[in-house]
Amino acid sequence: MVFLLDSADPFKEVDNSTEFVPGVRSKGAVHVRVQQRNGRKCLTTAPGISKNFSYNKILKDLRKELCCNGNVVEDLELGQVIQLQGDQRKNVAHFLTQRGIVKKEQVKLHGF
Asked: Cα(55)–Cα(70) distance, rounded to whole angstroms?
């Protein structure tokens, strides 16, 4: 008895985004990361938000809702990135999905 195994490449990138979602890149997701600074201080970054949105308006609403400071920085590889003070990963993910900027499946949390 001979069993043939599927020869699919497990490392092949799968693109399941067949439907158009306004304001979201077709391939990417928003990767919300936390970076350790010095001591107990940390920084939350959110690259990957579509260029259709105003980063400064999103940042202004995030700063008001989360009661923290932040800014928009320009990165060579990632483009514009929103940075916030403190570990705000879950709060940023909730804010982005609640406001309809991205879908819940498109937010990836990283860090610690």
From this structure: 11
pTM, rounded to two decimals? 0.71
Residue 111, Cβ density class (10 Å: 0-12 exposed, 13-18 middle, ≥19 buried): middle
Q: By CB neighbour count within 10 A (0-12 exposed, 13-18 middle, 19+ buried), where does 5 fall?
A: exposed
* 35, 41, 42 from 38: Cα distances, Å: 10, 6, 7
What is the spatial distance between Cα 101 and Cα 71, in angstroms, rounded to a whole number?
Answer: 18
How does pLDDT run across 17-68, given as a tens digit for each residue? 444 444 444 356 899 999 998 989 999 999 989 888 999 999 999 999 999 9
> What CA–CA distance (Å, rounded) separates 40 from 9?
42
